[in-house]
Specification:
mainly alpha, about 0% strand
Length: about 300
């Protein structure tokens, strides 16, 4: 088990290092942020002074090594646009993103689990076909398009929900549905497939022969064992909901880290953009690491095959 944990932690650290390298390099492909930040009448002396102050005049390798050195100390740099550090800006926006992601995850689970279980139990019935339609729509409809349609129907036409912003529970409903709709389809399909395998197992047949109520057989014995597969995907869901919030937050003007990332790209605010992506990557890696550990405890064969 220790070897398994060591390998997983090592893989996580390597992943974060690769992400930091890619983010640092690709962020600078858009050009020097001074071209946007300085006014058109700025002198060459002003340009050179700021270029030297922020270290943009140094070779890219030197800049990256300095960035890694500071990052290991928890310093991801100062914002080039706002009078705050990059991590302070991310920390201010992160609670709003977590709030939206958790609510979206709750909605996805509440909708997907019952449909997935019932679709497996009622295989090849109208209920099963209904579940397949939900899965098809969930995995083919883009989140931004769904968000716009929800906004047009429930905010513009019906006036039931606010179109954008934050402040109340109603503000979260449409962004959470738009963000989590794809996950409804994914979880439902995984759970349905796992349930079909479990329903045909010998111990389920034995439970029915013993006279256990069908509800107890399905919702206690079958669901508990079928949930092992979808559980692994929940680590991926956590990362997808956070990183996918970039588009959803832009559509609904939700003041989270996704909207902060869009603002940083527009302003070429390298430190803030790097901080957002590295924090996202860190959360994604940690969630997957936790799921790997839980999965190894649930199925001891995993640790010995790694």
């Amino acid at each position: 088990m220790r070897r398994y944990l060591f390998i997983r932690v090592l893989h996580s650290l390597i992943t974060l290092l690769v992400v930091s390298f890619l983010v640092f390099g690709m962020g600078r492909l858009s050009g020097n942020p001074l071209d946007i930040l300085l006014p058109e009448d700025a002198t060459e002396e002003q340009y050179n002074r700021l270029n030297e102050r922020w270290g943009f005049d140094r070779p890219i390798v030197v800049q990256y090594l300095k960035f890694i050195q500071n990052a290991l100390q928890g310093d991801l740099g100062e914002s080039l646009v706002k009078p705050d550090s990059a991590m302070e800006l991310v920390a201010q926006r992160l609670p709003a993103t977590f709030q939206l992601a958790l609510f979206s995850l709750a909605i996805s689970t509440i909708i997907a689990v019952p449909i997935g279980v019932l679709a497996a139990v009622k295989r090849d019935t109208p209920l099963d076909y209904f579940g397949k339609i939900i899965a098809l729509l969930g995995q083919s409809v883009p989140s931004f398009w769904l968000g716009l349609m929800l906004m047009w129907i429930f905010a513009v036409q019906l006036g039931w929900l606010p179109a954008s912003g934050t402040g109340s529970f109603k503000h979260m409903i449409m962004p959470a549905i738009a963000l989590g709709w794809f996950q409804v389809a994914a979880v439902m399909r995984l759970l349905r497939s796992s349930m079909l395998d479990v329903l045909d197992s010998e111990y389920v047949k034995m439970a029915r022969i013993k006279g256990l109520p069908e509800r107890k057989v399905v919702w206690k014995h079958c669901l508990r064992n079928a949930a092992i597969g979808p559980l692994t995907y929940y680590g991926v869901i956590a990362g997808i909901l956070l990183t996918g919030s970039v588009i959803t937050e832009q559509v609904f003007q939700w003041p989270g880290t996704g909207l902060l990332a869009i603002e940083a790209v527009r302003n070429r605010d390298f430190p803030v953009l790097q901080a957002v992506i590295i924090v996202f990557a860190g959360i994604f890696v940690v969630c997957n690491l936790i799921v790997d550990i839980l999965y190894a405890y649930l199925d001891p064969r995993i640790r010995y095959s790694t």
